[in-house]
Amino acid sequence: MVKVTIRKSTICKAQRLAEIIVERRKLEKEEKELKDFFKREIGDNEGLKAGNVQIIRQEKSRTDLDKNALKDKLGNDFLKGFEKVTQYFQLNVLTLS
After folding, report:
1. Cα–Cα dist 67/73, whole Å
2. I want to staple 78 with a disulfide (CB 3.0 to 4.6 A). Which of 5, 33, 56, 74 is the partner?
3. Angle at 70 between CA 65 and CA 72, to 5 degrees
4. How far apart are CA 78 and CA 57, in angstroms?
5. Is 58 a member of any domain?
6. Is residue 32 part of a domain?
7. Domain count within the chain
8. What pLDDT shows up at residue 73?
9. Is 21 inside any structural domain?
10. Host domain of residue 18
11. Rounded mean pLDDT of 25-46?
């Protein structure tokens, strides 16, 4: 087994990263709860003004392709010619006890 020496500054940065992730998750949860509240509060209206904050409801739409329907219609082999693979890596941060 190879022993790797980790600098104290690296340990501090790793711990800070873990703390930020926990804080971000809490903020995202609170953001979702508040947005859900205002969606209910606004209802079918265009928006509302609360103090110096204006919250506006905007209708949006997007178009997606139904890959399963295309596969049924054209066949999986046909669709394979149009697939694009993107490679990436992900950092998983775990807090150890």
Report:
1. 10
2. 74
3. 145
4. 41
5. no
6. yes
7. 1
8. 95
9. yes
10. 1-51
11. 95
